[in-house]
Hints:
The protein is globular. The chain contains 4 helices and 13 strands. Helices cover 18% and strands 30% of the residues.
Amino acid sequence: MQRERFVGKGPWQLTDPHQGVLLRTNDSNPDQLYRDVLVMLDEQRGIAIGLPSMWAKFLWSANPLNGERVLQVGAGSGYYTAILSELVGNKGSVVATEIEPHLCVLASKALADCHNVSVLNQDATSGFEIEKDQFDLIVAFAGATHPLPHWQSSLKPDGRILLSRTMKVVVRWFCSDSRRMVLSERLLALAGSTRALAHDTPISRLT
Length: 207
């Protein structure tokens, strides 16, 4: 995936969390983007293209499958939207929402060749109507730290949510019979994730 399509013109500010340093490139050489770093999109608001190694683990946990329908909350410039697009393939689809207009424009241009992607300038945390049983997977890395009711109802039976939750990430599976949220007691740190399966003890009921 060509990362430079999603970051605008250089030079760029990069953040290396492994070394805890901020780096500003001297030019627009895209080779500098192909490292395990955050690429800042909006420095004042702290919006960035996420760390590749971290997202690789998250997406491995969420396991998007060919033909699935995905809702992405907080698409940013669309880099991981493009990866989701490839993972679900031509038989699947991705609906990507982004509240920031300038990022939505950037994502729409960068994703123009991804025919299974729809980019919406929407706040998916409120005032966003979704029909029931629409999505196999919801990826929410902006705007909420818990599953919102309209997200939950939009999941198909056995659908799942990949959710950012206060520097921890949880993959939540939903039981097809009663739509209970189940969450295992293990919560790994930022570098990992937790799978909650149908046989785990439920901690709350959604409906």
